[in-house]
Design brief:
This protein has 327 residues and is α/β, with parallel strands linked by helices. It folds into two domains: 128 residues, Rossmann fold, CATH 3.40.50; 126 residues, 3-Layer(aba) Sandwich (Rossmann fold), CATH 3.40.50.2300. α8 links the parallel β8 and β9. α1 packs across α5 and α2 runs parallel beside α3. The radius of gyration is 22 Å and the shape is globular. The two termini are 32 Å apart. The N terminus and C terminus are likely disordered.
Length: 327
Amino acid sequence: MKGECMNKCSILFMDDHVNDKTAVAVIDAIEALKAEGYDVETAEKMSEAIDAFYRKFFKVFVLDIDMGDVRDILEGRGTKVADLYKSLDNNSLVIMYSAMGNANDAFLVANRHVFGYVCKAESNAIKKLVSIVQAAEKQESADFLIPESMDRGRVLVTLGKSPRLDKEKVTAAVKAAGSFETTFCSLDNLLKEVKKPDVVAGMVLTSEFETKESEMLKLEKLCSVQPAPQVILGCEARDELCPSIFSLINCHPFRLLDTFSDSLYQNITLAVKDAARLYGGRETFRAEPEYVRRVADKIDWKTLDESLMPSSEDLLDETSRDFQKEE
């Protein structure tokens, strides 16, 4: 029955409004997940979410981005928690659920390979969140696939309309990555050619992607060929383009590049190098000691442990309730 825990996966839901009954998008989302039978635990602070990671196994993490409405030992945005989770366990299934995420946040979590992104402001946000959680629940822990590391071959490139995108510069950027040939083609032809064994990577660059379902389905189909080859997508990291950027994240590209960046062509070179190095394999993220220490040092673990322990009043109330039950 819905509403009861049906041995479904455990979910950690981090949001600074989990205790705010007026935050409809948050409270209703939690209730919707519970109604589907999920075991949902909440964290109001980033420090609590990090502590929960070590305390219990969660299959899925639903994370807010703007965590500034509650004072916390750990400062920053929810993307920091997503980054840490993926560094500590590459199989972490992270779904961003936020109303305040900007384009830079979106690009950051896309390149950390989060499982999904849902904007709270969407009319069907809760339904979409439940759907993505259901997909994540079915996700098996990915096997470690040993990459083949391609040192030559073709990079298929589709260029959209943008005065900033130059064919010669793209070709030069690809060539700087190794002995790779650039083949420009339409998206439809890219889809036809991408599975050929000499293709090192598929790349689609434009100023902005259309949000039409038919276009997104093509990009989803393209990304589904990964990891052989990997797929690189690029558009301008502008906040007004966030709806389409969020949709791109849910396509799960290997890399999402900012085509408005002054470092675009250097980033293309790096992305192609990584795609060739990890051809047929799965990208893993290492927990950088310096980063983990920097995060951990900001947490007063003693204070955190004390804050998570029930107060003496709570213990007395619990004892009283237990005594009344026995009577």
